[in-house]
Amino acid sequence: MVDVLLGLQWGDEGKGKIADFLTPKYDVVARFQGGPNAGHSLEINGKKHVLNTIPSGIFHENCVNLIGNGVVMDPILLKAEIEKTIAAGADVRERLLISKKAHLILPTHRLLDAASEAYKGDSKIGSTLRGISPTYQDKTGRSGIRIGDADSPNFDKLYKDVIEKHKGILRYYNFDFEAKLAELEEEWFAAVEYLRGFKQVNSEFYLHHQITQGKKILAEGAQGSLLDLDFGSYPFVTSSNTISGGACVGLGLAPKHINKVTGIFKAYCTRVGSGPFPTELENDMGQFLRDKGHEYGATTGRPRRTGWLDLPALKYAIMLSGVDELIMMKADVLSGLDSIDVATGYEGCSDDELCPFNIQGTVVTPKYESFAGWQEDISVMREYQALPETFKTYIDFMEQDAGVPISIISVGPDREQTILRK
Ligand code: GDP
Ligand code: IMO
Ligand code: MG
After folding, report:
1. Which of 16, 126, 283, 422 has its CA 20 to 30 A from that of 110?
2. What secondary structure, in 3-state letters, does 39-104 show?
3. Among this protein's residues, is 176 annotated catalytic?
4. CB of 236 within 8 A of CB of 134?
5. pTM of full prediction above 0.70
6. 376-408 pLDDT, tens per residue?
């Protein structure tokens, strides 16, 4: 049985915290897409951990953590992340499995990402510069290299062939790469060798066996539904499918094994990088949300753009993934406000097809409803009953409008700051 956990907005909803919180119910946590563009924060007993490629169940003793075939991984960054996570007390050697089919981010992929962004100038995507798009381009272009290929006698040739192609593109971009490439290459090969010391598996078979033995699997998404390659605000998206369908291809799972889809959303919205953001607040309120919510990227440290919750966008994401259950994050950030706005529609758009961005790239204008705020500090509350009545009115409205129950409310970054709604 497989449950899917994913973000419903533009990423950074708090997937890491919730995956860690839910892990005790599961035997395996499996990442199905993305790569080290992700930054998933966990806070355990006051100590913060940031994971980029390792799944968020790694701090639990009895859980296997799988990096799926749909993930792209940078050996240099993954080696550093593994070492950091071992130092933080997790037995990564024992608990981590890596799909042999996961594609490798090469040193030139990182350089190509930087070159492409520089070339685009003002119309840049605002990527994390981790080489994500060039790596997925090589995957779909059938010239990528997978971690399992490191065992092949052909590995060096595969590498050289693709690097020569990349050099040609970097020259086209007029990008100065020789010194940087020379510096990265040695480290990259050493890191690939290091990863060969970890358990690499044919993960589709591994997961299939787990399912037939009745084990429980949590498929962990990265990024968010509005960054999905097909349904996000293209071209300002990432290069993988972040919606629940991505879990099937990113892990080799038949759709019939998917049991429950849980969607995570913040009580407001954030976005890093370029692209449409209809409810963005470029004012004091936006700065309030950024400061109080510590809205600075876990991976890149970039300030996140902030805005009010966008319900039509949330409902679009719920539809795309068939979300069964919602989890609301960072409700504590809204404490102390007199009123809270929520976008409930867009001017001039048909209620049947509400999407926060359209194919022409024009941005829609939201229509808002205002809700009374609350003054209490809800971050110290642990029971649903204790929450202020105005807060309950706010989430009842959301639940009814979305048509999906909100099962958990997160009121702080720590594992403990989590309220289960009966
Ligand atoms: P992810 O990428 O979806 O895992 O989310 P990130 O870790 O990038 O960003 C979420 C940020 O919010 C992290 O700094 C978390 O520690 C923090 N966080 C998670 N849940 C809550 C919450 O309920 N309240 C507050 N104030 N912070 C939270
Ligand atoms: P987590 O898993 C927020 C954004 C980038 C950029 C666009 C493309 O922590 O929620 P890419 O490097 O993927 O080519 O960048 O996607 N982006 C994220 N934004 N959270 C993330 O991951 C993101 N991963 C990518 O900022 O706009
Ligand atoms: Mg993040």
Report:
1. 16
2. CEEEEECCEEEEECCCCCCCCCCCCEEEECCCEEECHHHHHHHHHHHHHCCCCHHHHEEEECCCEE
3. no
4. no
5. yes
6. 999 999 999 999 999 999 999 999 999 999 999
